[in-house]
Amino acid sequence: MVNVLTVLPSFFSLVLASSYFERHMRLHERRDGVPEGFTNKGPAPGDVTLRFRIALVQNDTQGLQTKLMDVSTPRSPQYGQWLSKEEVGTFVTPKRETATAVNEWLATNGLNATVLSPFGDWIGFETTVSHANVLFDADFSTFVHDGSGKSAIRTLAYSIPASLTAHLQLIHPTISFPAPNDVGQPVLRSLAKNVLRRNITSAVTPSTLCDAVMTPECVQLLYKIPGTLASQSSNKLAAQASFKNLQIGPISGLLEILEIYRTDLSPDKTFTLQTIDGGTNSQTLDEAGVEADLDVQYTIGLASGVPTVFISVGDQYQDGDLEGFLDIINFLSGKSAPPQVLTTSYGQDENTISRALAYRLCNAYASLSARGVSILFSSGDGGVSGSQSQSCTTFVPTFPSGCPFVTSVGGTQNFNPETSAPFSSGGFSNYFDTPWYQTTAKAAYLTKLGSTYAGRFNASGRGFPDVSAAGTNLEIVWRGSVMNVDGTSCSSPVFASVVSLLNDRLIAAGKPVLGFLNPFLYSTGADALNDITTGGNPGCNTNGFPAMAGWDPITGLGTPNWAKLLAAAGL
């Protein structure tokens, strides 16, 4: 027999706790309006189930960032002393009272959360739209992107109990919107098959051929990258090339590229597949994705012999509508020995996600960077108008390029001399301030720019990109045909390959890997890059930012110079 006298106090304590939380709600996040291109189609159906993710306040975010600065700045006594997984955990793991407070709130509302990250700083739960509206004092509606037709259930504001503001950083998905377009959308152009067969060592001069067709050999010539095989098996290069199983990297195209341009590489040196969130790699030719083929062919084709990991992300996300962006970082953060370099050619406009979410994702990159991982992202292909060309009045920064803890890579064109590619996204973040390593370089550019475009960008924001690399006419094999590809999607894997080869030499010499690159690039490595001083990145009905001597928001500090980078790295 149930003891009613025992049950009743427990029941009433839950009711009282729930009533207390409801009476003391506080606005936590809000968006001023619907993002450009989205239309509110009205209230979302109440019975639809939503998967929410809660970011718990971490133990010591500022301490982590300070430690990252110490281990990544060349002049620091701690330079190169990268942190272990456990050491990062002391900064990232929430305090016990934080987890207790948030879980108690959920329990009073009949909800149970699941831990989603290695350090317990992300938890998740499911509930209906109608319950979420009450729980968060919100108004979830269906929004549709006019151009792509992509729909999402979101609210423009939500609240949480005032007692949780010191414990709960954000709830997702709420006010952040999905990216209607990805940064990783390289442009394909047909190419005659016989061009592939031309040898750049023939009577045709490299500059003439490579201006028309940029092959792995051309990239090696341009940046003086050696073909010497890497020797360190512990050195890994990861390419985050597949999302939602829409990008497949067939081995057949890779083998054809290697057969023609890198006969010195063993044909069995392909890649290791890592699947996340139900990702696949079926090798069906007509499912091959341009992005995947590009990343695979220009990492393995340039990072001679460096063990390469191809990351395929499915659609069974644990991070809600972040589409695997956080899942990948959580996955790699959970490893005792993550790959030393990660290149990604996807992203979105900064204004589509909330400031709080951008900060939290950026800190996830800081956590992995502190482990000695170089994280590179393409800057985008819309010039000053964002990830893709669009109508705008003020300049549109991209994310994650605006995050100060990643290395953003812009694009160039032409073999010799190089100039900036007009599509190369660049500018200044509206969310993140100028980081310590960029203060001098950015100030010098703004002084030369003067009052040009005043009011169109945030002059106090973190500038991007940091560096650049070839971004036009890269030749790939796609679905059995030879194609040219344009976009900063080309540039990130190229620069990442150079970093991986440098790491191979460093490990062989008994030295720490480069890890978080930016403090090195803006100091010791600044003179080891080819400064690009011509061109611009038009958008928003302007000519965009002009390239100038030194750092600029189109090509960053410049493109790689192998011999000088080797010397700058102390080799």
TrEMBL record:
GO biological-process terms attached to the record: proteolysis
Binding site for Ca(2+): 531-532, 550, 552
Active site residues of this protein: 291, 295, 489
Catalytic activity of the protein: Release of an N-terminal tripeptide from a polypeptide
Location, primary (coarse class): secreted
EC number: 3.4.14.10
The entry's keywords: Calcium, Glycoprotein, Hydrolase, Metal-binding, Protease, Secreted, Serine protease, Signal, Virulence, Zymogen
UniProt domain Peptidase S53: residue ranges: 213-571
CC cofactor note: Binds 1 Ca(2+) ion per subunit.
Enzyme class: hydrolase
Pfam families: Peptidase_S8, Pro-kuma_activ
Subcellular compartments: Secreted, Extracellular space
Gene Ontology molecular function: metal ion binding; serine-type endopeptidase activity; tripeptidyl-peptidase activity
Signal peptide boundaries: 1-17
Named cofactor requirement(s): Ca(2+)
Keyword Secreted applies: yes
GO-annotated cellular components: extracellular region
PANTHER family to which the protein is assigned, alphabetical: PROTEASE S8 TRIPEPTIDYL PEPTIDASE I CLN2 (PTHR14218), TRIPEPTIDYL-PEPTIDASE 1 (PTHR14218:SF15)
Function: Secreted tripeptidyl-peptidase which degrades proteins at acidic pHs and is involved in virulence.
Protein name: tripeptidyl-peptidase II
Originating organism: Lactarius akahatsu
